[in-house]
Write a structure and sequence with these properties.
The chain is mainly alpha-helical. It has seven helices and no strands. Helix 1 (7-25) packs across helix 6 (89-113) and helix 3 (37-56) crosses helix 5.
Length: 126
C-alpha cells in the first residue's frame, strides 16, 4: 500500500519532469525531435518518470482528483517502458505539445487547493 505522505513529493516530481520535457522541446520541431536520438531519449525518459510518479500516487489521492487523467498518464509510462521498441514518436510529440501544459496546470491547482499537511496528517493517523 502506498503512503499518502508521498503524494506531495510525487506531484512535485511530476512538475519537475514536465518542466524538463517542456524545456527540452522548447523551440524544437517534430522533425528535430524525430531526427535527434538524444532529444527523443530525454523526452521519453522524462515522460516515463512523469507516468511513474503518477502511478506511485495513492489510490485515495487519485480518486480524490478524478478530473486528472491518471490512467492515461500511467499508460504512457508503461508503453514507454514495456513497448520501447514501438514508441510512436508522433504520439509522444503530441503529448509534449498538447498534454503537458494542461497537466502542469492541473497539478499546480491540486497543490494550491489541497491541504497536503492535513492529507499527510490523516495518513499517519490511519
Amino acid at each position: 500500500m502506498r503512503e499518502r505522505v508521498r503524494d506531495r513529493n510525487r506531484l512535485k516530481h511530476m512538475l519537475d519532469h514536465i518542466d524538463k520535457v517542456l524545456s527540452a522541446a522548447k523551440g524544437k520541431t517534430f522533425e528535430t525531435f524525430n531526427e535527434d536520438p538524444i532529444l527523443f531519449g530525454a523526452i521519453a525518459y522524462y515522460t516515463m518518470i512523469i507516468g511513474e510518479a503518477a502511478y506511485m500516487l495513492t489510490k485515495e489521492f487519485k480518486e480524490s482528483h478524478p478530473s486528472t487523467p491518471w490512467r492515461e498518464i500511467e499508460g504512457m509510462c508503461h508503453h514507454i517502458v514495456h513497448g520501447y521498441a514501438q514508441i510512436r514518436k508522433d504520439m509522444l510529440w503530441n503529448v509534449v505539445q498538447d498534454d503537458l501544459l494542461p497537466l502542469k496546470s492541473q497539478i499546480e491547482e491540486i497543490l494550491s487547493q489541497t491541504n497536503l499537511d492535513e492529507w499527510e496528517k490523516q495518513s499517519t493517523e490511519s
